Write a sequence for this structure.
């Protein structure tokens, strides 16, 4: 039996690889219990005659295989387990929950969808393993925030709180309409860059402080201030009835807790997911009441208006849940989808419906795959709009998929974007089997390369912040196509590099061996 590695303290030498070892250790302990739970669920679905039992079994098997492979050889940034667990949620949970979408399609299509997820999971795991065998870790050279690293956990806490307070202050001033003078002096079109910078600063700050708290190295006052700032920031970010930014910060905090403690923060995740699910139910009604157009809020709410805003939102969400229950009661067995159902969080994360849609479009309607056209759009989208004002929309790949497969006409794409996800996009480009294998092989080798180049990078460095940004974008990628994921990640990288360069120094600072002290 392999001895459990001794946890090292959070200090100036902490790098991405050391934190990832904690993730690796935690996943090795979780794989067997997870396999048992998924097996029991698959057996229950089969015994109860529920649709999708075979598909769920394949998704579960692929999940456990990929996690077991990664946990035996990982050295760096845990990108592979993130996308594997994400696939379990967005493709497996709808089956386990008996979501109504799977009853719309023939059982054979649901089985095919499960097989595609299995192929993807196995392909990404094998490609990652091959990549780890042929690639080697880069040198321990980082562009570090040296002064904060010297102070260790205390320096990180100071930096993290400064970033959180700065990002929250920006949100408050934005809500009070006190940033007009700033917008007047910055170049036209720079507001999106400023928003991206604030988002990255806030996320990195929450991550740093959550590491300190998860590692039990924070004082009671620091913990209290952190929780107050997290709740305040989440409420301000979501006050325009857009939950994505608030959810990103909450997930970032969960990553920090998990990395520093080697334990899944179940209580925190339960509270956060319940709150997001509850508010998501009434989100559409609140948007209809207060948004001026279909795709942009009219105004930001001031801090003083937040209590009344959330009281109304809570009331709307509660009534929406009651309406959903009533709708289910009134729906007939022959036509359950005619019920007037509000969107739940399960509806939002259900990517199985997108995979089933494209399987149906290709197999039943005989629509030809796009043969890689959505991926060929990526290079032009990386050109700054300042240099190319008429460049395609960032969602152009998504638009092409929806129009080609008959989900939308071109005119409707200017008001509504219908999500797809990476695996349905791959299927839509290359069809069955080839799409899943190709996407899995590419991502697996890419993740292995990223692990090797980041394993020895210091946590509080420009590279460390780039890693965190990549993690955040990947965790939110469940409804993105590749062009949106790549462009959003590229834009955040540019912002991080530009903002970090004045404050970092090239550092070669490996952790000394015990004998060296």
């Amino acid at each position: 039996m392999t001895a459990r590695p001794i946890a090292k303290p959070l200090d100036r030498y902490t790098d991405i690889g050391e934190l990832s070892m904690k993730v690796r250790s935690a996943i090795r302990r979780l794989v067997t219990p997870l396999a048992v739970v998924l097996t029991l669920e698959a057996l229950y679905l089969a015994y109860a005659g529920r649709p999708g039992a075979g598909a769920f079994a394949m998704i579960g098997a692929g999940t456990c295989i990929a996690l077991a492979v990664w946990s035996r050889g990982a050295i760096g940034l845990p990108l592979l387990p993130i996308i594997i667990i994400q696939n379990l949620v967005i493709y497996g949970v709808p089956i386990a929950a008996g979501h109504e979408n799977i009853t719309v399609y023939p059982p054979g299509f649901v089985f095919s969808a499960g097989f595609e997820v299995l192929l993807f999971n196995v392909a990404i795991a094998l490609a990652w393993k091959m990549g780890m065998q042929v690639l080697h870790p880069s040198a321990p050279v980082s562009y570090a925030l040296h002064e904060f690293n010297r102070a260790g956990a205390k320096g990180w806490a100071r930096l993290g709180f400064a970033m959180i307070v700065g990002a929250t202050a920006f949100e408050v001033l934005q809500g009070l309409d006190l940033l007009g003078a700033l917008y007047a002096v910055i170049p036209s079109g720079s507001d999106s860059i400023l928003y991206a910078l604030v988002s990255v600063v806030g996320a990195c700050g929450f991550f740093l402080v959550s590491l300190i708290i998860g590692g039990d190295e924070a004082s009671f006052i620091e913990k209290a201030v952190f929780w107050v700032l997290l709740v305040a920031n989440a409420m301000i970010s979501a006050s325009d009835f857009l939950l994505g930014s608030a959810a990103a910060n909450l997930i970032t905090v969960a990553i920090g807790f998990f990395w520093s403690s080697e334990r899944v923060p179940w209580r925190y995740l339960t509270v956060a997911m319940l709150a997001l699910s509850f508010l998501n139910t009434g989100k559409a009604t609140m948007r209809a009441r207060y948004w001026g157009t279909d795709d942009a809020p009219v105004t930001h709410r001031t801090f003083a208006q937040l209590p009344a805003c959330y009281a109304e939102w809570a009331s709307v969400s509660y009534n929406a849940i009651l309406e959903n229950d009533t709708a289910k009661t009134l729906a007939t067995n022959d036509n359950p989808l005619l019920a007037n159902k509000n969107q739940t969080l399960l509806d939002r994360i259900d990517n199985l419906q997108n995979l089933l849609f494209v399987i149906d479009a290709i197999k039943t309607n005989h629509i030809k795959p796009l043969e890689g056209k959505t991926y060929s759009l990526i290079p032009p989208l990386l050109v700054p709009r300042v240099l190319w004002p008429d460049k395609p929309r960032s969602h152009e790949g998504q638009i092409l998929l929806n129009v080609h497969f008959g989900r939308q006409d071109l005119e409707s794409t200017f008001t509504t974007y219908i999500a797809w996800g990476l695996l349905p996009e791959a299927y839509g480009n290359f069809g069955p089997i080839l799409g899943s294998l190709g996407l899995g092989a590419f991502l697996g080798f890419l993740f292995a390369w990223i692990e090797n180049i980041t394993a020895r990078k210091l946590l509080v460095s420009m590279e460390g912040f780039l890693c965190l940004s990549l993690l955040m974008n990947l965790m939110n990628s469940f409804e993105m196509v590749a062009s949106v994921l790549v462009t959003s990640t590229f834009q955040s990288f540019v912002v991080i590099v530009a903002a970090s360069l004045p404050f970092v120094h090239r550092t070669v600072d490996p952790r000394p061996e015990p004998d060296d002290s």
Observations:
- The chain is about 65% helix and 0% strand.
- Residues 213 and 222 are 8 Å apart (CA to CA).
- The chain has a mean pLDDT of 81.
- The two ends are 30 Å apart (CA to CA).
